[in-house]
Specification:
Blueprint: H1 7-31, H2 52-70, H3 73-103, H4 107-112, H5 117-151, H6 156-196, E1 201-205, H7 214-217, E2 223-225, E3 230-232, E4 237-239, E5 250-255, E6 264-265
Antiparallel strand pairs: 1-2, 1-5, 3-4, 5-6
Length: about 270
């Protein structure tokens, strides 16, 4: 089997992204919502100079600039790299330990001659891009939603209450992003290493429990090309195990026949 995505890194990565969302929420509340009109808290129709939309967008822009000083792209890349590096090291060790006896090459030699640095780094960067996307989409969502509520004449109390609800949903989304991206990274690195060793096919294996999605269950036990993924008419998609959102499926690699060695599964 290809290595399972590590639960510890998934949990820790989720905690870090969730903390980012919580800090963003506190800053947005203090620097935007509570600054809109300190003298009139019931309605925003006369907010400061009277143009509440212009004021909101101005405060939101200031909030964004300050936030990007704290959570800039380099910091997010470093944060993501911390976790993907751990997942990568674990994936390499487990995959090569499982395959060394089957192909007659030590795991140490396999690791030393791998030559996948650039490809793995690209997968790491892809993971950080998802965190950046979540940061940017969160800021846009909060600004747009607040502007709409203000235009409809909602009170500050109503806006603050609904904002807290949005924050909770976003924190839950952070956990989902962490699970999906760590699982995706783990799946892609397993695929890259297997293909690098000449393995071209795999078998889709589900978690085989009540939480398994019907369209993933439809793929269970089916062989597919690593270069293509596995299509199912159930959902009309071509997928790789572990890459769909919250997917817990994994691949069982098919080791090709070698002289003196029977065809084996990893």
């Amino acid at each position: 089997m290809a290595p399972d995505p590590p639960k510890t890194e998934i949990r820790q990565f989720g905690d870090v992204i969730e903390k980012m969302i919580a800090q963003m929420a506190q800053r947005f509340k203090n620097q935007v919502l509570l600054e809109m009109n300190k003298s009139t808290v019931d309605k925003f129709t006369d907010a400061q100079t009277g143009n509440f939309a212009k004021i909101l967008l101005s405060l939101s822009s200031k909030f964004r600039r300050k936030l990007l000083n704290k959570y800039d792209n380099k910091r997010i890349e470093a944060m993501s790299n911390k976790f993907t590096s751990k997942v990568n090291a674990r994936n390499q060790k487990e995959l090569y330990n499982r395959i060394e006896d089957k192909i007659g090459i030590s795991s140490a030699e396999l690791a030393a001659t791998e030559g996948l640095t650039f490809q793995i780094n690209a997968y790491k960067l892809e993971t950080s891009q998802w965190v950046k996307k979540m940061r940017d989409e969160t800021m846009e969502q909060w600004t747009a939603n607040t502007l709409r509520q203000m235009a409809e004449g909602d009170s500050l109390e109503t806006i603050m209450s609904q904002f807290d609800g949005m924050v909770e949903k976003r924190r839950g989304h952070a956990k989902m992003v962490a699970r999906t991206q760590i699982s995706t990274f783990n799946s892609l690195t397993s695929k890259a290493r297997s293909q690098n060793l000449g393995i071209t096919t795999a078998v889709w294996v589900t978690a085989r429990d009540e939480r398994t999605r019907p369209c993933h269950k439809a793929r269970d036990g089916k062989e597919y090309e690593l270069s293509e993924g596995l299509y199912s008419s159930c959902d009309g998609k071509t997928l790789m195990p572990g890459i769909d959102y919250n997917c817990r499926c994994i691949a069982r690699m098919k080791i090709p026949e070698m002289e003196g060695v029977d065809n084996q599964d990893l």
